[in-house]
Design brief:
Layout: E1 21-25, H1 32-45, E2 50-52, H2 73-83, E3 87-90, H3 94-102, E4 107-110, H4 112-115, H5 118-128, E5 134-138, H6 145-157, E6 163-167, H7 185-193, E7 199-201, H8 203-207, H9 213-222, E8 227-231, H10 249-258, H11 269-310, H12 317-333, H13 338-361
Parallel strand pairs: 1-2, 1-8, 2-3, 3-4, 4-5, 5-6, 6-7, 7-8
Helix pairs in contact: 1-2, 1-10, 3-5, 5-6, 11-13, 12-13
Bound molecules: phosphoenolpyruvate and manganese (II) ion (MN).
């Protein structure tokens, strides 16, 4: 069902191979001058493919700047006329879609708060029916891959064929280095489930800080994602929204310059052979891990039977805490992170409990 997906300015997708597809522009359109000056600065870099600016801003709290609304659309149209850059903006309801299409917006994106809401996404999808427009879908604020893919399917079912996804991180209550948790395993899983859909990264909303935009962008390149959406403002200090995370067009130029681009595949047979040997070793170790898991579960089965026959509960908390504690200690000495050991042993433990529960509930 998803064949022929292709993002509009990526009609000639080959042209972009080997470099990130770059969307840049301010968080919000504020004034005609700010919109134009930022666009001219970006055009001058020669490395930006699409201009972005938020016209309607979904804000977490009320009484902050909620965007200039439709009066900013002619400014975007002017950017397109004067720079030749395709233009993009966020839509959160049917009215936004109609207005943006009226002004020739080339790419509509669905924001993280909207993609979390299937009713809103469906309304937007219905409003897009029959339009020749590209759509980018940001991940929902909550780390739910199926919800993200579901939003994409709603848009696709409305007949839109030019679709891409944007990873912008996930909301968190924890105070962390980033504004939004990257949880890279989720976009990685998306890429493996839907390899034909372009996947961009929004380092601005992930990091929340201009000085971290490069690191997150590099990470996206290391993972071989297709492009970036970077918030760029002619004078970030006075930006009316997301001031801390916006970079100037010049700074974006330096970021692009410094990015190390990784080739998706080995270059020749000798590289392929070296990687092939190492991968064989990994496969062999993975087989051993599976054998060990099998042996472990065999013992778990005996424990389960013993507990069943002697009427002892499955979960023995103190035993579990001891396992996790000593494993983390031992793992640290082997250079394995606390997080890795914790997650791995939790998964193993859960599987053991599942096996035992089955035994306890299948009485002889
Ligand atoms: C934005 O791109 O300006 C925006 C509001 O992003 P998000 O939906 O990712 O928060
Ligand atoms: Mn923003």
């Amino acid at each position: 069902m998803l064949e022929n997906l292709n993002l509009l300015p990526l009609n000639e997708w080959e042209e972009y191979k080997g470099r990130p597809f770059m969307i840049a522009g301010p968080c919000s359109a504020e004034t005609e001058k700010q919109v134009m000056d930022t666009a001219l600065g970006l055009k001058a870099l020669g490395k930006v493919d699409v201009y972005r600016a938020g016209i309607w801003k979904p804000r977490t709290r009320p009484n902050s700047f909620e965007g200039v609304g439709s009066k900013g659309l002619p400014w975007l149209k002017k950017v397109k006329q004067e720079t030749g850059l395709p233009i993009s903006t966020e839509v959160a309801n049917a009215k936004h879609v109609y207005e943006a299409l009226k002004f020739g917006v080339d790419i509509l994106w669905i924001g993280a708060r909207t993609s979390a809401n299937p009713f809103a996404v469906q309304e937007i999808a219905d409003a897009m029916k029959g339009a020749d427009v590209s759509v980018l879908i940001k991940n929902p604020v909550n780390p739910d891959l199926d919800l993200w893919i579901g939003a994409m399917e709603r848009i696709h079912q409305a007949g839109i064929k030019k679709i891409g996804m944007i990873h912008r991180g996930f909301s968190t209550y924890e105070k962390i280095k980033y504004r939004n948790l990257p949880q890279w395993q989720i976009p990685i899983e998306l890429k493996s489930r839907l390899p034909q859909i372009p996947l961009l990264v929004d380092p601005s909303h992930i990091s929340g800080r201009a000085d971290l935009v490069f690191d997150v962008s590099q990470r996206a390149m290391d993972l071989n994602f297709d492009g970036l959406m970077v918030e760029t403002h002619i004078n970030p200090k006075v930006a009316l929204s997301d001031a801390k995370q916006q970079v100037t067009p010049e700074e974006l130029g330096q970021i692009i310059e410094q990015l190390v681009l990784r080739d998706p595949k080995p270059h020749n047979n000798s590289e392929l052979n070296i990687l092939g040997d190492l991968r064989q070793k990994i496969d062999w170790i993975d087989d051993q891990l599976l054998d060990l898991f099998e042996q472990r579960m065999e013992i778990v089965k005996h424990i389960g039977e013993y507990k069943r026959d002697n009427n002892i509960s499955v979960l023995q908390n103190s035993r579990w805490e001891e396992i996790i504690y000593t494993s983390i200690e031992k793992g640290a000495k082997k250079g394995l992170s606390r997080e890795f050991i914790n997650n791995t042993f939790k998964a193993i433990h859960q599987e053991s409990i599942n096996h035992q529960m089955e035994i306890l509930n299948n009485r002889k």
